Amino acid sequence: MQMQPKVGIESISVHVPRYFVDLKTLAAANDVDPGKYYHGLGVRRMAVVAPDEDPVTMAVEAARALIERNKLDGGRIGLLVVGTESGVDGAKPIAAYVHGLVGLSGECRTFDAKHACYSGTAALRMAADWCAVHGTQHRNKALVIATDIARYDEGSAGEPTQGAGAVAMLVGDEPHVLELDLRNEAVFSREVMDFWRPNYRSSAMVDGKTSISSYLSALKNTYLTHRAASGFGWDDYEYLLFHVPFPKMAYKAFRVLCGLERNDNADDQFDLRSGPALWANRELGNIYSGSLYLSLAGLLEKGGRKVEGARIGLFSYGSGCCAEFFTGRLGTDSKNWADKIGIGAGLDRRTELTYEQYLAFRKNGNALACDGSYTGDPQGAAFGRLRKVFYCGIRDHRRMYFVNDNVAQVARNSGIETRSRRSSVAV
Ligand code: HMG
Predict the structure, then answer these.
(1) Which residues contact 308 (CB under 8 A, 6 or more apart)?
(2) Among candidates 100, 132, 121, which has minimal Cα distance to 169?
(3) Is the minimum distance from the CB of 372 to ligand 1 under 6 angstroms?
(4) Phi and psi, residue 217, nearest 5°
(5) How far apart are CA 7 and CA 128, in angstroms?
(6) Helices 94-102 and 55-69: crossing angle, nearest 10°?
(7) What are the pLDDT digits (tens) for 358-386?
(8) Cβ(88) – ligand 1 distance below 6 Å
(9) Is 85 a catalytic residue?
(10) DSSP-assigned letters across all residues of 7-44
């Protein structure tokens, strides 16, 4: 029998947007009992992007942090796949912008994967298969990024489940974070109109109840397929991670698995096996393609040595729909997880918005998403001068990005425009 090569996630990094709205603030504005958002959905705060942040800048921030932390030679990356449902152009992939702004080698295949929230997993699985084949070559690392802004209509039922963020993962043959089991595939697809975003809209359309039942039936389907194919059962998983549109959904999912496994101790088991992964999702909200991986990162960042070597089950769901249940084993590298993945540090840096400020950000966000009419603030002053990459609006139908190469100096100086070296890039 041929040996299966070791492949998986070598390192992971999360970008947290700099602004948030507390769900109590949103509940007051929507005239809803805050208990519904806090406990009924399980969300505390939702991340909000500034007008000069977009899915590209978030992806670049996450990727640059990953590369810097690992002192990675970019020349070793032969594949860059971005999973997203927040595409910024009908033709040009986010991966192309990221490739330019991060400065990767020309000998690199770049493209986006799209299937709603499943796109992060589609990108990861594709990268893992690619790494399994290219394992012995010099250029054998893949960069996978899941980046999204979750936006629903103002005042809608979906609004409290908004969020934003990006997760970057280095994939290769030294899986210090998660070694993937590539042998057992359990996927499920079925065309369904549960959640979609027509090209002319910046916020998503959703049939909430249909989306929940579609998610849960895809979970049952893939879990049972996986159990039959792999022989792994309930007791083999120390942790179970799910796609998290809102944390209560993970609880609903867990209960469904308890039902399948005839386990009547759902609440205690949930607190042990899934609860520890959800703290970051409560703070950022739905980040669509990255939500499952935000849970993984959250588990690592706070789990420490306790989670080392654990076998985990992961369920990924993308509306439309495509779903997958898969497994892997966590690495034994916890010294590189605590405080290094970027969630805690990102949360510490953020600023709370009033409801009126949130609406203003939203208005500018819509303008840039729909027609590019937002022309940006290249000073970057209003929206966080410690960031490295800014979106500056559209000129001549081209998206403009602004790279601040000297962030430390910017932080020291208040007159940022004159004293820091900056480069403006149209990519
Ligand atoms: P809703 O209809 O306004 O909420 O929207 P509800 O009335 O069903 O209430 C929600 C929960 O809050 C209920 O608990 C209530 O009992 C409880 P549950 O029955 O679910 O256990 N509740 C309270 N609890 C405490 N105190 C109170 C209180 N009041 C009520 N005072 C819905 C909910 C999720 C449908 C809505 O937010 C929505 O449409 N969200 C967007 C769609 C979504 O997230 N779907 C999830 C599955 S699909 C998916 O995950 C894919 C997705 O990520 C996209 C992609 O793939 O790209 C969305």
Answers:
(1) 330, 331, 332, 333, 334
(2) 121
(3) no
(4) -75, -35
(5) 6
(6) 40
(7) 999 888 766 665 565 655 554 444 444 55
(8) no
(9) yes
(10) -EEEEEEEEPPSEEEEHHHHHHHHT--HHIIIIII---
Ligand 1 touching residue 35 (CB < 6 A): yes
Task: Supply 85's token pair.
Answer: 């449902």
CA pair distance 408, 315, nearest whole angstrom: 39
- Most ligand 1 atoms within 8 A of CB, residue of 151, 194, 211 to mutate: 211
Architecture of domain 8-352: 3-Layer(aba) Sandwich (3.40)
Contact 359, 329 (CB under 8 A): no
215 contacts 202 by C-beta, under 8 angstroms: no
- Residue 148: name the closest of 192, 112, 178, 200 by CA: 112
Do the Cβ atoms of 155 and 359 come closer than 8 Å? no
Nearest C-alpha neighbor of 146 from the set 283, 45, 297: 297
Indicate the SS3 state at residue 113. strand
pTM for this predicted structure: 0.93
For residue 41, the CA-to-ligand 1 centroid distance in Å is 6
- Distance (Å, whole) CA 341 – CA 376: 29
The protein residue with its alpha carbon nearest to ligand 1, atom 9, reads 40
Calculate Rg over the CA atoms of the chain: 21
Intervals of the chain under pLDDT 70: 1-2, 365-387, 405-427
Q: Where are the domains of the chain?
A: 8-352, 368-426
Gap between the Cα atoms of 244 and 251, Å rounded: 10
149 contacts: CB under 8 Å, gap ≥ 6: 49, 54, 55, 86, 164, 365
Q: How many CA atoms lie within 13 A of 21 on its CB side?
A: 26
CA 317: distance to chain centroid? Answer: 13
Establish whether residue 249 lines the binding site of ligand 1, counting it when its CB lies within 6 angstroms of any ligand atom: yes
Say how many CA atoms lie within 13 Å of 68 toward its Cβ: 11
Please choose from 33, 84, 162, 206 the residue to mutate so as to test ligand 1's pocket, defined by most ligand atoms within 8 A of CB: 206
pLDDT at 200 (0 to 100): 87
CA distance 317 to 288: 9
pLDDT confidence of residue 123: 98
- What is the number of residues in the chain? 427
Chain segment 39-91, per-residue pLDDT in tens: 999 999 999 998 888 999 999 999 999 999 999 999 999 999 999 999 999 99
